[in-house]
What we know:
Layout: E1 3-7, H1 12-22, E2 28-33, H2 41-52, E3 57-61, E4 80-83, H3 90-93, H4 97-117, E5 122-125, E6 127-128, H5 153-168, E7 175-181, E8 184-185, H6 194-203, E9 208-211, E10 217-218, E11 221-222, H7 223-235, E12 240-244, E13 250-251, H8 252-263, E14 269-272, H9 287-290, H10 300-313, H11 315-318
Parallel strand pairs: 1-2, 1-4, 2-3, 4-5, 5-7, 6-7, 7-12, 8-11, 9-14
Antiparallel strand pairs: 10-13
This protein binds nicotinamide-adenine-dinucleotide.
Amino acid sequence: MKNILITGAAGFIGYNLTKSLIENKEIKVLGIDSLNNAYDNNLKKLRLKNLENNENFVFSNIDLSNQNNFGGIQGSNFDCVIHLAARAGVRQSFREPKQYILDNTVSTTNLSGFVKKKEIQKFLIASTSSIYGDSGESPMKEDTDEKYPPPSVYASSKLSGELMAKTILDGTETCIQIPRFFTVYGPYGRPDMSILRFIHWIYTGTEILLYGDGNQKRSFTYIDDVISGLNTLILSKDSGVFNIGSDKTVSLNQVISIIEKELNIKSKIDYQPRAFKDVDVVIPDLNRMKSLNWNPTTSIEKGISETIQWYLKYEEELKNIRFKFEYEK
Ligand SMILES: NC(=O)c1ccc[n+]([C@@H]2O[C@H](COP(=O)([O-])OP(=O)(O)OC[C@H]3O[C@@H](n4cnc5c(N)ncnc54)[C@H](O)[C@@H]3O)[C@@H](O)[C@H]2O)c1
């Protein structure tokens, strides 16, 4: 793989993947992103600033939901397209469903047409554990979604994207791989996700906004494990859906106490009612990824410690980032 197109390159996972790939001088990346306002854009600009000076990286501001923009994609002969662009977030998706359909379903549909037209051999499409919802099954196998309806607009828009890609590329030689991520955290993470928000709020002495009693568990997955999972898929010829997550679940209360210990600061908590359709615990079945010799290896203590070290290093730049949505104030 030498010539790679990455969508969502200014996003959390897209940035970290791009950064790791272009360290290899043999690989050239065209990064695409619409720099939307789903969360504070200053963080996306900070990520892009770190990529700008690398001669193996070119950035293009393109909104994939508009088919007319595809003419602006420079370069050709991509060996691989890695589609990470999306509008993420379960709660917000109920507020603006059409935007989620555009950024997730329509964008993936448009990109699938591009992959077909250009006869690209490999297409990775990021998807999410949110698709699995509250099926009561544990651990979640990759075919669980066939038995239960998606529990949110976000999940529906992502699952529709998966289906559109499979349908449009059916009968072609493109190898489609669909990694489904489980609650990813780490340096350059999203300010709308719990671990980074908790670190920021505890460090700045702000009350933590906690939905529910904090006993709900998550399969928190450290970004380096996600990147190694994506690299495993890039090198593999197997097509299909693959869970990429940690099989050790941790509660939000446990996360808070690990951060308190690491920062040596006691938190203040503002308990709010549990979010609509917030799922209790989702544990991934990892057998498919394990058969490719991938395993998550970062403990929650190590991952949080690394994230805090990064946060403290970039404290100045992060001071002005918004960690709350308008409706949370
Ligand atoms: N972070 C997680 O915990 C997690 C968990 C499960 C799945 N995922 C999936 O992983 C992928 C990356 O997530 P992330 O956490 O990096 O999110 P992110 O929001 O940080 O990154 C996504 C990027 O896509 C861009 N984008 C959105 N719509 C676009 C469009 N129409 N055209 C071009 N660019 C557009 C955004 O501007 C953003 O920079 C997404 O597909 C998401 O659904 C993430």
